[in-house]
From TrEMBL:
The keyword Ribosomal protein does not apply. PANTHER family: H2HPP ISOMERASE (PTHR40112:SF1). InterPro entries: Bacilysin_H2HPP_isomerase, Cupin_2, RmlC-like_jellyroll, RmlC_Cupin_sf. It comes from Phyllobacterium sophorae. One of its GO terms (molecular function) is isomerase activity. This is Mannose-6-phosphate isomerase.
């Protein structure tokens, strides 16, 4: 087994790696950092980023949307986002005028490609929507948009392009 550090280009090091300092990090759920970019209607909190865990390519955290609430329309620049629904019912709207809609529940994953205007909606009138959020980069990019949404968005069921 090599003592190569994954961030040194694969070259042999003279010193062994301090795996205690440069190894696995466990971030307790009650110590997430709310000081991250926000969108009206939701509360984001950072679990994993460069400053907190040494991550270089991803960001992860949580998002809570209160009962019967919705976020403002926004996008995340060139970042890809994955939302995992832990509790509640998510209604996602997206498009130039938020003209498309789909819903997700506990155990479902939502993929949001770069630059896609979208809005998260808590579909429950009395239960908080709780999700885990992962992004493909470190920058806390949130571009809030002023969009006049269409009244009745088109429902879009997901179909796996591989297993049709």
């Amino acid at each position: 087994m090599s003592n190569n550090h994954p961030h040194d280009g694969g070259q042999d090091r003279q010193q062994p790696i301090d795996w205690r300092k440069h190894g696995v990090k466990v971030i307790p759920g009650d110590s997430l950092d709310p000081n991250t970019a926000q969108t009206p209607g939701m509360n984001r909190a950072t679990a994993i980023n460069r400053a907190r865990a040494g991550a270089e390519k991803i960001w992860a955290g949580t998002v809570v949307i209160h009962a019967n609430a919705k976020t403002g329309a926004h996008h995340h620049g060139d970042l890809e986002s994955i939302i995992y629904v832990v509790k509640g019912r998510a209604r996602m709207r997206w498009g130039e005028r938020l003209e498309f809609v789909a819903e997700a529940g506990p155990g479902d994953f939502i993929f949001v490609p770069p630059y896609v205007p979208h809005q998260e909606i808590n579909a429950s009138p009395d239960e908080a929507l709780e999700c885990v959020l992962v992004r493909s980069g470190q920058e806390p990019v949130v571009v809030n948009l002023d969009i006049e949404p269409v009244e009745k968005p088109e429902g879009v069921p997901w179909k796996d392009p591989i297993h049709r």
